[in-house]
Structure formats: C-alpha cells, structure tokens
Design brief:
heterodimer; A: mainly alpha; MetI-like fold; 11 helices; 76% helix; globular; B: alpha/beta; Rossmann fold; 6-stranded mixed β-sheet; 4-stranded antiparallel β-sheet; 25% strand; disordered N terminus
C-alpha cells in the first residue's frame, strides 16, 4: 500500500470516528441529564409531590402541586394567545402577503425568536404587570405566548409553503375559492407538521424561567385566580435550587425531573401525531 | 393557410378524409377563443389565437415543449391567474358568455381540469371524489355521486372496496383516473386535460385514452399532449401550436394526413420538436 493511500485511509477513519463521537456526545448529554435527575430527584418524586403544597422551611416532605397546576395554566393560556396569532399570521404570510411584506415579517419573527427571554419578561412586566399593579398568571402567560408566536408563525408558514402547488391547483380547478382551498386542502395537508411545531414550541416555553420571574412571579400556595401570581415548575426549581436547604435541593431535582418528563411526553406526542394519518408524498 | 386568418368559427371546413365526414362548421361550439394574446410580464406567450372547442368532442392541442399549448389550455378555466403578472387580451367565450368577466369559482366548476401529474388530495378515495360537490354546497346523496363519478372514470371496479383508503395507495394510473373522477363529480361542461398521461406507463396511458373517448358522451374535452400519436388516437380536432402561434387547426384525420401548413407537416413527420 502506498503511503498516500494509507494517509487517505487514516483521514477517512479519523473523520468517521470524529463524526460518530460527536453524534454520540449529543445523544449522551440528554441521557446524562436524565440519569442525573433520576439519581438526585427520583426519590423525591412521589405521590405527595404531585398532590401537596410546599411545606414551610424545616418541615420535611410536601410537594409542588401548585407549581404543576400553575405551569399547566400558564401553558394553556400562553397557547390560547400565542398559537392563533402565530398560526393565522403564518397563513397570511404563506398565502396572501407579497414577497416584500413576507420577508419583513419573517425577519422580524426571527429577531423576536432571538430576543432573550428575560427581555420578553421585562416587556410583559411593563405592559401587563405595571398597569394592573400586581403579578399575575395572565402576565406570565402573555410572556410565554409572545415567545410561542415566532415559532408557530414560521413553522406554519414553512409547512404551508411545502404543500405541493399541484394540490392547490387541484382544489382551485374544482371551483374552490382561495380561502376554501386553504381551509380544506392546504391546512389539512400541513396540519401534522404545524401541530408538531406547536407542541415543540410548547415544550420550549414550558422550561422558561426568566420571563416568569417578574410576571407570574411565584406563590407558596394555590394561586387565587388568573389575575393572581402563581407558582410554576421552572421558577420553583430556581428558588429551591438556590436556597440553602438540603431538602429543598432534592425537591428542585424532583421538579426538574417532572418538567423534563413533561417535555418528553409532549415530544413523544408530537412524534405520534407526525406518524399518523395520510402524508403528502414529496416532490 | 393559418387558422388565425380565419376569424369567427376557426375550424376549417375542409374535412375531406373518410373519418372526418362530419362538417365541422355545423358542430355547436362549447367554447370560442378569439384574438387571444397572452403575456407573462412583458413576454408575449400567445399570439392572436382563434379557435373553437366543439361540443362533446375531443380537441387536442399539440406542439413542441414551451410552445404555449399548456398556457392556452389553462386560460380556458383561468388557471393562468394563479401566476401573478399575467396579462390577457381578446375574448374567450363559454356558451356565448365571456369567461373573463364571470365569477372565477363558478367558471372552474363548469370547466374542470386534470393535471400533468396525478394530484389527489391527502384524503381517502371517497373524500377525493366527494370534495368538489361538497365545497360547492351539494347536499344530496353524496355516495351516489361518488360511485357514478368513479364508474364514469372506469375506476369503480378497482376501488369499490378501498373507498376509505388513502388515495396515495393507488398506482399512478389509478390516481390519474381518480383525479378524472374527482373532476367529473362536479359535472363540468368542459374538461381540460393537461398532458394527463405524461407521467404514466403505456398500459395506464392506454386506459386513460380509452376513457377519454368514452367521456365524449358526457362532456366536452380539450387535451394538451406532446404525444402526436395520442392526439391522433383520441381527438376529433387538433390544433398545432408553435412558438405561441396557432399554425393549423383542423379535423384530426385531415391534420395528420394532409396538413395544410408545411410547418405542421414538418412537425408531425418528426423533423423537429
């Protein structure tokens, strides 16, 4: 074997190993986090964790029922606000706006997506919390909903745009108006992709802490309503992790585990949706 | 002689060959195109087109790629409007009424279209056929319409037990017949076919050609094809289009046996295109 060929083989094997290791590392990180959470928080995830309120400092036990419900309420309200705005905006962008308008909106959406979440929090604070003079679930949901808009908008636009032109023409040639074509053919052909993207957006904001710090704030008890501050899992993790009590640390780990579990469930749900129904063939 | 020099009913009345005994001028015209000029932006695609689409007959448009024959067909149900910056001059009549001033969704219900590649919706076979009647407010027995349309498209026997399966489980040829059934379900007065067999194998193509001849009893057909033999087999009238101009428009047997323009002869004998 000539030296040159040997060198090539070496480079080939080296690069192959390198890419393989990188692929392994990216997967390993997830499993490492999951394992670490299980190790540290697994023992604290029990029935009480899901059903009880946090205990005062010094008392052992208690749970984060209020934070779990709080997170659920925040995500529900955030979706009710963020998803329709993003979805219909995406429809406008993909189907009705000119290319000039579309590129401006697209660019703005990408920028909004890149705005640090703490800045979104300050924005919601100034816009909702200050006028009403107290922290509230709705203010937190507003902040999270804002973060969902660009993801929903961009993915709606992309999935609608990916629907083959010939499907549109097929519907229009049967006498469907543009709006009817979108409603009965385009959106049904793209809905699985859009729904998946919405679920991923939901999973992303589910773990956001910064925007909630001065909007939904936090609560050691059950929230008194949508207009009142509420506990949430990410903020709970933050508060408990920085506190100087061993017991709280365990609770924080447990909350982290529950949160990650929740996000995993959402992801699996998204995948299941993607694999069901009639897919539009490519090309 | 160019068809464009013959305004009014532009079918030449010189059907002399045995197969073309019918007098073209006496046929009622479903659609009529006069002095049609068409532009994309500043580029002119069609020049001064005059022709008629005879009722309950098959009219074929032939010509080399890019000659404008598909564009001409798409104008007949105003599908050209889906592309921005198009401009049209002249007149297109359907039953003596200008199609360009009508409500476009109503027009497309009356003038259906089948495309180059089968484009069933990501729905079941049943829902594909039921789609047209449903969006057009049909409230009667939809299952009957679906069966009738599938029978008319010669697909019923093959799919009657699979009606609720995905349309994508059918073969390409079956999908194209499904698209024909879908178009027939709204009972169009004219059915436009834009190279409906170009993505299909010879057996599927033969089935569709057979079907087209059958469909003459139901509706008026206009077909674009790059396949001259196909035009010769299925059509009653053929228009030869070259670089946006109507070179010759005659009864099919005449155009293929005694073309009146040397360019037509050159094309059908395979000297170009």
């Amino acid at each position: 074997m000539s030296g040159r060929l040997r060198w090539r083989k070496f480079v080939s094997n080296f690069m192959l190993t390198l890419t393989g290791v990188c692929a392994f590392v990216s997967v390993a990180v997830l499993f490492f986090i999951l394992g670490y959470l299980l190790f540290n928080g697994g023992t604290s995830v029990n029935w009480a964790f899901f059903t009880q309120l946090p205990k005062p400092v010094g008392e052992v036990g208690g749970g984060m029922a209020n934070a779990i419900v709080g997170s659920a309420k925040l995500l529900l309200a955030a979706s009710l606000f963020g998803v329709p705005v993003g979805f219909f905006g995406g429809i406008y962008l993909a189907e009705f706006s000119g290319t000039a308008v579309a590129s401006v909106v697209r660019y703005a959406a990408d920028l909004l997506n890149g705005v640090p979440s703490i800045v979104i929090g300050i924005f919601a604070y100034a816009l909702v919390v200050l006028p009403f003079k107290h922290f509230s679930t709705l203010a937190g949901a507003f902040a999270l909903g804002l973060m969902m808009i660009p993801i929903t908008l961009r993915s709606t636009e992309e999935f609608l745009g990916a629907v083959p032109r010939m499907l549109r023409e097929g519907a229009m040639a049967l006498g469907a108006s543009k709006w009817k074509t979108i409603k009965t053919v385009i959106v049904p052909a793209a809905y699985r992709g859009i729904l998946t993207a919405i679920l991923l957006a939901l999973a992303r904001v589910a773990g956001e802490t910064a925007p909630l710090l001065f909007t939904a704030f936090g609560n050691r008890f059950w929230s008194q309503g949508w207009g009142q501050p509420t506990a949430s899992l990410p903020v709970m993790i933050f508060t408990y992790a920085v506190a100087p009590y061993e017991d709280w640390h365990r609770q924080a780990w447990a909350a982290g585990l529950v949160l990650l579990g929740l996000i995993l469930i959402i992801n699996i749900l998204a995948r299941t949706i993607l694999s069901r129904g009639i897919a539009v063939p490519r090309g | 002689m160019q068809a464009s020099s013959n305004p009014g009913l532009s079918v030449n009345i010189t059907a002399t060959t045995g197969a073309a005994k019918e007098n073209a001028a006496s046929l009622p015209m479903r659609m009529k195109i006069s002095k049609l000029n068409f532009f994309y932006g500043s580029k002119q695609i069609l020049f001064d087109i005059n022709m008629g689409i005879a009722d309950k007959r098959v009219t074929a448009l032939i010509g080399p790629s890019g000659c404008g024959k598909s564009t001409l067909l798409r104008i007949l149900n105003r599908m050209h409007e889906t592309v921005a910056s198009s401009r049209l001059e002249g007149e297109v009549l359907l039953d003596q009424q200008n199609i360009l001033t009508q409500d476009v969704t109503r027009l497309r219900r009356r003038v259906g279209m089948v495309f180059q590649r089968p484009n069933p919706f990501p729905k079941s076979i049943f829902d594909n056929v039921a789609y047209g009647p449903k969006i057009n407010g049909f409230t009667g027995p939809i299952a009957e319409v679906v069966e009738k349309s599938l029978r008319n498209a010669a697909l019923w026997e093959e799919v009657k037990d699979l009606l609720h399966k995905s349309a994508y489980e059918l073969s390409g040829g079956q999908q194209q017949r499904l698209c024909i059934a879908r178009a027939l379900a709204v009972e169009p007065e004219v059915l436009l076919l834009d190279e409906p067999c170009s993505a299909l194998d010879p057996i599927s193509t033969a089935k569709i050609e057979e079907l087209l001849v059958e469909l003459k009893n139901l509706t008026t057909l206009a077909i674009v094809t790059h396949n001259m033999q196909q035009a010769a087999r299925v059509s009653d009238f053929t228009a030869f289009v070259l670089t946006g101009q109507m070179i010759e428009f005659n009864p099919t047997p005449q155009l293929f046996t005694t073309p009146s323009d040397p360019r037509t002869e050159a094309y059908i004998t395979g000297r170009f295109g």
